[in-house]
Amino acid sequence: MVIARWELKNTLKSKKFLLIFFMQLSVLAMLILMFNSFAATIESDKGLSLTPSLVDFATLDVDDQGGLFKKSIDPEVIKVYSTNGNDSQARLGAGQTNGFYTVSPDSIQRIQNGEVVDTLLYLDYSDPRRSVVRDAINTTTKSVSSALTQSYLQSATSSNTSSQTGLKEEKTGESLPMQIIRKVMLVVLLFLPLFLFGNIIIDSVVGEKERKTGEILVAMPLSPVEILLGKGLAVVAISALQVAMWVAVLLAAGFTINNVIAVYLLVVLTALPIVGLTSIIAAYAKNYKEAGIGITFAYVLVVGFLIVPALAYISRKSFSANISPMTTVMRLFAGEAISLPEILMSVTLVIFLSIVFFGIAAWLFQRDDVMFGPRPGLMRLFLELIGFKKRT
Protein backbone atom coordinates (compact mmCIF):
# COMPACT_ATOMS: atom_id res chain seq x y z
CA MET A 1 0.00 0.00 0.00
CA VAL A 2 1.67 3.18 -1.27
CA ILE A 3 -0.40 5.51 0.91
CA ALA A 4 0.13 3.39 4.02
CA ARG A 5 3.91 3.33 3.60
CA TRP A 6 4.02 7.04 2.89
CA GLU A 7 1.84 7.96 5.87
CA LEU A 8 3.73 5.61 8.20
CA LYS A 9 7.10 6.93 7.07
CA ASN A 10 6.11 10.58 7.50
CA THR A 11 4.50 9.94 10.87
CA LEU A 12 7.50 8.09 12.29
CA LYS A 13 9.79 10.88 11.11
CA SER A 14 7.68 13.54 12.81
CA LYS A 15 9.32 14.98 15.93
CA LYS A 16 5.89 15.79 17.32
CA PHE A 17 4.83 12.15 17.01
CA LEU A 18 8.02 10.83 18.61
CA LEU A 19 7.59 13.25 21.52
CA ILE A 20 3.96 12.16 22.04
CA PHE A 21 4.90 8.49 21.64
CA PHE A 22 7.51 8.51 24.40
CA MET A 23 5.44 10.80 26.61
CA GLN A 24 2.70 8.17 26.50
CA LEU A 25 5.18 5.53 27.65
CA SER A 26 6.16 7.84 30.50
CA VAL A 27 2.49 8.24 31.42
CA LEU A 28 2.11 4.45 31.42
CA ALA A 29 5.08 4.11 33.78
CA MET A 30 3.53 6.71 36.09
CA LEU A 31 0.15 4.92 36.01
CA ILE A 32 1.80 1.64 36.96
CA LEU A 33 3.70 3.36 39.78
CA MET A 34 0.53 5.00 41.08
CA PHE A 35 -1.42 1.75 40.88
CA ASN A 36 1.23 -0.23 42.74
CA SER A 37 1.30 2.44 45.45
CA PHE A 38 -2.50 2.46 45.61
CA ALA A 39 -2.62 -1.35 45.77
CA ALA A 40 -0.08 -1.43 48.58
CA THR A 41 -2.13 1.15 50.50
CA ILE A 42 -5.50 -0.55 50.26
CA GLU A 43 -4.02 -3.95 51.07
CA SER A 44 -2.14 -2.78 54.15
CA ASP A 45 -3.74 -3.02 57.57
CA LYS A 46 -3.06 0.66 58.21
CA GLY A 47 -4.19 1.88 54.84
CA LEU A 48 -7.48 2.30 53.09
CA SER A 49 -9.77 -0.62 52.41
CA LEU A 50 -12.13 -1.21 49.54
CA THR A 51 -13.91 -4.12 51.15
CA PRO A 52 -16.51 -2.11 53.14
CA SER A 53 -18.25 -1.46 49.83
CA LEU A 54 -18.92 -5.23 49.65
CA VAL A 55 -20.31 -5.62 53.17
CA ASP A 56 -23.63 -7.53 53.03
CA PHE A 57 -23.22 -7.76 49.26
CA ALA A 58 -23.74 -11.54 49.49
CA THR A 59 -25.01 -13.92 52.18
CA LEU A 60 -24.04 -17.53 52.81
CA ASP A 61 -25.53 -20.29 54.96
CA VAL A 62 -22.67 -22.30 56.49
CA ASP A 63 -22.91 -25.73 58.12
CA ASP A 64 -19.50 -26.16 59.76
CA GLN A 65 -19.64 -27.86 63.14
CA GLY A 66 -15.88 -27.63 63.57
CA GLY A 67 -15.97 -23.90 62.88
CA LEU A 68 -12.54 -23.87 61.23
CA PHE A 69 -13.70 -22.93 57.73
CA LYS A 70 -16.54 -20.67 58.87
CA LYS A 71 -14.30 -18.36 60.85
CA SER A 72 -11.92 -18.05 57.89
CA ILE A 73 -14.59 -16.63 55.54
CA ASP A 74 -14.02 -12.91 55.03
CA PRO A 75 -16.88 -11.17 56.90
CA GLU A 76 -16.26 -7.97 54.95
CA VAL A 77 -17.33 -9.73 51.75
CA ILE A 78 -19.76 -12.44 52.87
CA LYS A 79 -22.38 -12.24 55.61
CA VAL A 80 -22.37 -15.70 57.22
CA TYR A 81 -25.40 -17.43 58.74
CA SER A 82 -24.74 -20.55 60.82
CA THR A 83 -27.13 -23.39 60.04
CA ASN A 84 -27.55 -27.13 60.50
CA GLY A 85 -28.40 -27.48 56.82
CA ASN A 86 -32.03 -28.55 57.23
CA ASP A 87 -33.65 -25.65 55.39
CA SER A 88 -30.66 -24.00 53.67
CA GLN A 89 -31.33 -25.46 50.23
CA ALA A 90 -34.93 -24.30 50.47
CA ARG A 91 -33.70 -20.83 51.46
CA LEU A 92 -31.34 -20.86 48.49
CA GLY A 93 -34.14 -21.78 46.11
CA ALA A 94 -36.33 -19.02 47.54
CA GLY A 95 -33.58 -16.42 47.11
CA GLN A 96 -33.21 -15.81 50.84
CA THR A 97 -29.49 -16.62 50.71
CA ASN A 98 -26.89 -16.54 47.93
CA GLY A 99 -25.32 -19.90 48.71
CA PHE A 100 -25.05 -22.88 51.06
CA TYR A 101 -21.64 -24.13 52.22
CA THR A 102 -21.35 -27.39 54.10
CA VAL A 103 -18.28 -28.95 55.74
CA SER A 104 -17.83 -32.50 57.03
CA PRO A 105 -19.16 -32.64 60.64
CA ASP A 106 -15.99 -34.44 61.75
CA SER A 107 -13.67 -31.98 60.01
CA ILE A 108 -11.44 -31.36 63.04
CA GLN A 109 -10.97 -35.10 63.64
CA ARG A 110 -10.18 -35.65 59.96
CA ILE A 111 -7.62 -32.85 59.99
CA GLN A 112 -5.94 -34.30 63.06
CA ASN A 113 -5.80 -37.70 61.37
CA GLY A 114 -4.46 -36.18 58.15
CA GLU A 115 -7.55 -37.13 56.19
CA VAL A 116 -9.40 -35.24 53.45
CA VAL A 117 -12.15 -32.87 54.56
CA ASP A 118 -15.22 -32.85 52.29
CA THR A 119 -16.80 -29.49 51.52
CA LEU A 120 -19.73 -28.65 49.26
CA LEU A 121 -20.87 -25.28 47.94
CA TYR A 122 -24.39 -24.89 46.53
CA LEU A 123 -25.04 -21.86 44.34
CA ASP A 124 -27.97 -20.47 42.39
CA TYR A 125 -26.59 -19.90 38.88
CA SER A 126 -29.33 -17.41 38.09
CA ASP A 127 -27.92 -15.15 40.83
CA PRO A 128 -25.25 -12.72 39.52
CA ARG A 129 -23.66 -12.62 42.99
CA ARG A 130 -22.69 -16.29 42.77
CA SER A 131 -19.21 -15.36 41.49
CA VAL A 132 -18.53 -13.29 44.62
CA VAL A 133 -19.54 -16.20 46.87
CA ARG A 134 -17.53 -18.71 44.83
CA ASP A 135 -14.39 -16.57 44.83
CA ALA A 136 -14.68 -15.90 48.55
CA ILE A 137 -14.99 -19.64 49.33
CA ASN A 138 -12.07 -20.48 47.03
CA THR A 139 -9.98 -17.91 48.88
CA THR A 140 -11.08 -19.38 52.23
CA THR A 141 -10.19 -22.91 51.16
CA LYS A 142 -6.74 -21.85 49.96
CA SER A 143 -6.14 -19.89 53.16
CA VAL A 144 -7.10 -22.80 55.42
CA SER A 145 -5.11 -25.29 53.34
CA SER A 146 -2.02 -23.08 53.40
CA ALA A 147 -2.29 -22.54 57.15
CA LEU A 148 -2.73 -26.26 57.84
CA THR A 149 0.20 -27.19 55.63
CA GLN A 150 2.41 -24.72 57.44
CA SER A 151 1.16 -26.04 60.78
CA TYR A 152 1.99 -29.66 59.85
CA LEU A 153 5.45 -28.69 58.63
CA GLN A 154 6.17 -26.83 61.85
CA SER A 155 4.90 -29.69 64.01
CA ALA A 156 7.04 -32.19 62.10
CA THR A 157 10.21 -30.27 62.93
CA SER A 158 9.27 -29.34 66.48
CA SER A 159 10.22 -31.43 69.49
CA ASN A 160 7.07 -30.37 71.32
CA THR A 161 4.05 -32.12 69.87
CA SER A 162 0.45 -31.58 70.76
CA SER A 163 -2.71 -33.59 70.20
CA GLN A 164 -4.46 -30.42 69.07
CA THR A 165 -4.04 -28.99 65.62
CA GLY A 166 -2.32 -25.62 65.55
CA LEU A 167 -3.60 -23.11 63.08
CA LYS A 168 -1.91 -19.91 62.11
CA GLU A 169 -4.08 -17.61 60.08
CA GLU A 170 -2.41 -15.70 57.29
CA LYS A 171 -3.48 -13.90 54.15
CA THR A 172 -2.71 -15.63 50.88
CA GLY A 173 -3.18 -14.12 47.46
CA GLU A 174 -5.14 -10.96 46.72
CA SER A 175 -8.49 -9.94 48.10
CA LEU A 176 -11.51 -10.15 45.83
CA PRO A 177 -11.76 -6.35 45.30
CA MET A 178 -8.06 -6.25 44.48
CA GLN A 179 -8.44 -9.04 41.92
CA ILE A 180 -11.25 -7.11 40.22
CA ILE A 181 -9.30 -3.85 40.23
CA ARG A 182 -6.16 -5.50 38.83
CA LYS A 183 -8.10 -7.21 36.03
CA VAL A 184 -9.98 -4.07 35.01
CA MET A 185 -6.89 -1.86 35.22
CA LEU A 186 -4.77 -4.20 33.13
CA VAL A 187 -7.36 -4.61 30.38
CA VAL A 188 -7.95 -0.84 30.25
CA LEU A 189 -4.21 -0.21 29.93
CA LEU A 190 -3.99 -2.73 27.08
CA PHE A 191 -6.75 -0.99 25.12
CA LEU A 192 -5.75 2.59 25.94
CA PRO A 193 -3.24 2.99 23.04
CA LEU A 194 -6.06 2.42 20.56
CA PHE A 195 -7.58 5.78 21.51
CA LEU A 196 -4.37 7.81 21.53
CA PHE A 197 -3.77 8.16 17.81
CA GLY A 198 -7.13 9.40 16.55
CA ASN A 199 -5.51 12.80 16.00
CA ILE A 200 -3.29 11.26 13.29
CA ILE A 201 -6.34 10.26 11.22
CA ILE A 202 -7.96 13.62 11.88
CA ASP A 203 -4.81 15.48 10.81
CA SER A 204 -4.36 13.26 7.78
CA VAL A 205 -7.93 13.59 6.42
CA VAL A 206 -9.20 16.92 7.78
CA GLY A 207 -5.77 18.43 7.17
CA GLU A 208 -6.14 17.61 3.47
CA LYS A 209 -9.32 19.71 3.40
CA GLU A 210 -7.88 22.68 5.30
CA ARG A 211 -4.62 22.66 3.35
CA LYS A 212 -6.60 22.38 0.07
CA THR A 213 -4.57 19.31 -0.94
CA GLY A 214 -7.57 16.99 -1.14
CA GLU A 215 -7.98 17.65 -4.88
CA ILE A 216 -4.43 16.45 -5.54
CA LEU A 217 -4.96 13.33 -3.46
CA VAL A 218 -8.24 12.45 -5.17
CA ALA A 219 -6.63 13.01 -8.59
CA MET A 220 -4.03 10.34 -7.89
CA PRO A 221 -4.48 6.97 -9.68
CA LEU A 222 -5.82 5.43 -6.49
CA SER A 223 -9.38 4.63 -5.45
CA PRO A 224 -10.91 6.27 -2.35
CA VAL A 225 -10.90 2.85 -0.68
CA GLU A 226 -7.14 2.53 -1.21
CA ILE A 227 -6.53 6.04 0.09
CA LEU A 228 -8.62 5.57 3.22
CA LEU A 229 -7.26 2.08 3.88
CA GLY A 230 -3.73 3.35 3.46
CA LYS A 231 -4.22 6.16 5.94
CA GLY A 232 -6.08 3.88 8.35
CA LEU A 233 -3.62 0.98 8.20
CA ALA A 234 -0.75 3.37 8.91
CA VAL A 235 -2.47 4.35 12.17
CA VAL A 236 -3.23 0.69 12.99
CA ALA A 237 0.46 -0.13 12.48
CA ILE A 238 1.47 2.67 14.85
CA SER A 239 -1.10 1.47 17.40
CA ALA A 240 0.27 -2.07 17.08
CA LEU A 241 3.76 -0.80 17.84
CA GLN A 242 2.51 1.13 20.85
CA VAL A 243 0.54 -1.83 22.18
CA ALA A 244 3.62 -4.07 21.83
CA MET A 245 5.70 -1.61 23.85
CA TRP A 246 2.99 -1.27 26.49
CA VAL A 247 2.75 -5.06 26.84
CA ALA A 248 6.53 -5.22 27.27
CA VAL A 249 6.42 -2.51 29.95
CA LEU A 250 3.54 -4.23 31.80
CA LEU A 251 5.37 -7.56 31.78
CA ALA A 252 8.55 -5.87 33.02
CA ALA A 253 6.52 -4.23 35.80
CA GLY A 254 5.49 -7.66 37.09
CA PHE A 255 1.98 -8.00 35.64
CA THR A 256 0.99 -11.53 34.68
CA ILE A 257 -0.33 -11.81 31.12
CA ASN A 258 -1.20 -15.30 29.94
CA ASN A 259 -1.61 -16.03 26.20
CA VAL A 260 0.40 -12.91 25.34
CA ILE A 261 0.32 -13.43 21.56
CA ALA A 262 -3.46 -13.99 21.44
CA VAL A 263 -4.04 -10.99 23.71
CA TYR A 264 -1.82 -8.77 21.57
CA LEU A 265 -3.43 -9.83 18.27
CA LEU A 266 -6.98 -9.30 19.54
CA VAL A 267 -6.17 -5.85 20.92
CA VAL A 268 -4.57 -4.81 17.62
CA LEU A 269 -7.52 -6.26 15.67
CA THR A 270 -9.85 -4.08 17.76
CA ALA A 271 -7.96 -1.05 16.48
CA LEU A 272 -9.45 -1.59 13.00
CA PRO A 273 -13.09 -0.59 13.72
CA ILE A 274 -11.95 2.24 16.00
CA VAL A 275 -9.76 3.67 13.23
CA GLY A 276 -12.61 3.09 10.75
CA LEU A 277 -15.06 5.02 12.93
CA THR A 278 -12.53 7.83 13.33
CA SER A 279 -12.12 7.90 9.53
CA ILE A 280 -15.88 8.41 9.10
CA ILE A 281 -15.81 11.40 11.44
CA ALA A 282 -12.68 12.80 9.77
CA ALA A 283 -14.16 12.41 6.28
CA TYR A 284 -17.36 14.26 7.21
CA ALA A 285 -15.91 16.99 9.46
CA LYS A 286 -15.26 20.45 8.06
CA ASN A 287 -12.43 21.34 10.43
CA TYR A 288 -10.36 20.13 13.38
CA LYS A 289 -12.77 21.51 15.97
CA GLU A 290 -15.75 19.67 14.53
CA ALA A 291 -13.74 16.47 14.19
CA GLY A 292 -12.51 16.75 17.79
CA ILE A 293 -16.04 17.05 19.13
CA GLY A 294 -17.14 14.11 16.99
CA ILE A 295 -14.45 11.68 18.13
CA THR A 296 -14.98 12.68 21.76
CA PHE A 297 -18.61 11.52 21.67
CA ALA A 298 -17.75 8.51 19.50
CA TYR A 299 -14.96 7.33 21.80
CA VAL A 300 -17.21 7.62 24.85
CA LEU A 301 -19.66 5.24 23.16
CA VAL A 302 -16.86 2.87 22.11
CA VAL A 303 -15.38 2.77 25.60
CA GLY A 304 -18.82 2.05 27.02
CA PHE A 305 -19.34 -0.78 24.54
CA LEU A 306 -15.96 -2.28 25.44
CA ILE A 307 -15.95 -1.96 29.21
CA VAL A 308 -19.60 -2.49 30.24
CA PRO A 309 -19.76 -6.14 29.03
CA ALA A 310 -16.34 -6.78 30.64
CA LEU A 311 -17.60 -5.54 34.00
CA ALA A 312 -20.82 -7.50 33.52
CA TYR A 313 -18.81 -10.66 32.89
CA ILE A 314 -16.94 -10.24 36.19
CA SER A 315 -20.24 -10.32 38.09
CA ARG A 316 -22.30 -12.71 35.97
CA LYS A 317 -19.94 -14.55 33.58
CA SER A 318 -22.64 -14.56 30.91
CA PHE A 319 -21.99 -15.80 27.38
CA SER A 320 -23.30 -12.59 25.79
CA ALA A 321 -20.66 -10.51 27.61
CA ASN A 322 -18.09 -11.97 25.20
CA ILE A 323 -19.45 -9.68 22.48
CA SER A 324 -16.88 -7.16 23.71
CA PRO A 325 -13.28 -7.94 22.71
CA MET A 326 -12.24 -6.44 26.04
CA THR A 327 -14.02 -9.30 27.82
CA THR A 328 -12.23 -11.87 25.67
CA VAL A 329 -8.85 -10.22 26.23
CA MET A 330 -9.45 -10.09 29.98
CA ARG A 331 -10.26 -13.80 30.04
CA LEU A 332 -7.26 -14.67 27.89
CA PHE A 333 -4.68 -12.84 29.98
CA ALA A 334 -6.26 -14.21 33.18
CA GLY A 335 -5.72 -17.74 31.84
CA GLU A 336 -9.41 -18.69 31.88
CA ALA A 337 -10.71 -21.49 29.71
CA ILE A 338 -12.50 -19.90 26.75
CA SER A 339 -14.37 -21.73 24.02
CA LEU A 340 -14.05 -21.13 20.27
CA PRO A 341 -17.64 -19.75 19.93
CA GLU A 342 -16.89 -17.18 22.64
CA ILE A 343 -13.76 -16.03 20.82
CA LEU A 344 -15.52 -15.96 17.45
CA MET A 345 -18.32 -13.81 18.86
CA SER A 346 -16.03 -10.84 19.52
CA VAL A 347 -13.69 -11.43 16.56
CA THR A 348 -16.57 -11.66 14.07
CA LEU A 349 -18.13 -8.43 15.37
CA VAL A 350 -14.80 -6.61 15.17
CA ILE A 351 -14.23 -7.71 11.56
CA PHE A 352 -17.82 -6.87 10.56
CA LEU A 353 -17.65 -3.37 12.07
CA SER A 354 -14.25 -2.79 10.45
CA ILE A 355 -15.66 -3.53 6.99
CA VAL A 356 -18.76 -1.39 7.58
CA PHE A 357 -16.89 1.61 9.01
CA PHE A 358 -14.14 1.68 6.40
CA GLY A 359 -16.75 1.22 3.66
CA ILE A 360 -18.76 4.22 4.89
CA ALA A 361 -15.58 6.30 5.28
CA ALA A 362 -14.49 5.50 1.71
CA TRP A 363 -18.00 6.32 0.42
CA LEU A 364 -17.86 9.72 2.11
CA PHE A 365 -14.30 10.37 0.98
CA GLN A 366 -15.14 9.89 -2.69
CA ARG A 367 -18.02 12.38 -2.62
CA ASP A 368 -17.05 15.83 -3.86
CA ASP A 369 -19.86 17.50 -1.90
CA VAL A 370 -18.53 16.02 1.38
CA MET A 371 -14.87 16.76 0.64
CA PHE A 372 -15.18 20.16 -1.02
CA GLY A 373 -18.73 21.34 -0.27
CA PRO A 374 -21.49 22.23 -0.04
CA ARG A 375 -21.71 19.42 2.49
CA PRO A 376 -25.06 17.56 2.75
CA GLY A 377 -26.72 16.96 6.09
CA LEU A 378 -26.36 13.76 8.09
CA MET A 379 -29.99 12.71 7.53
CA ARG A 380 -29.70 13.09 3.77
CA LEU A 381 -26.48 11.08 3.73
CA PHE A 382 -28.07 8.38 5.85
CA LEU A 383 -31.08 8.08 3.53
CA GLU A 384 -28.79 7.88 0.52
CA LEU A 385 -26.65 5.26 2.21
CA ILE A 386 -29.58 2.94 2.89
CA GLY A 387 -31.04 3.60 -0.58
CA PHE A 388 -34.14 5.59 0.43
CA LYS A 389 -33.00 8.67 -1.40
CA LYS A 390 -30.98 8.89 -4.60
CA ARG A 391 -28.10 11.30 -4.96
CA THR A 392 -28.89 14.31 -7.17
TrEMBL record:
GO annotations of cellular component type: membrane
Residues passing through the membrane, by range: 184-206, 227-255, 261-285, 297-315, 343-365
Keyword terms, alphabetized: Membrane, Transmembrane, Transmembrane helix
Top-rank lineage group of the source organism: Archaea
InterPro entries listed in its UniProt record: ABC2_TM
Subcellular location: Membrane
One annotated GO molecular function: ABC-type transporter activity
Residues of the ABC-2 type transporter transmembrane domain: 18-363
Membrane topology field: Multi-pass membrane protein
Major subcellular site: membrane
Presence of the UniProt keyword Transmembrane in the record: yes
Record keyword Transmembrane present: yes
Protein name stated in the entry: ABC transporter permease
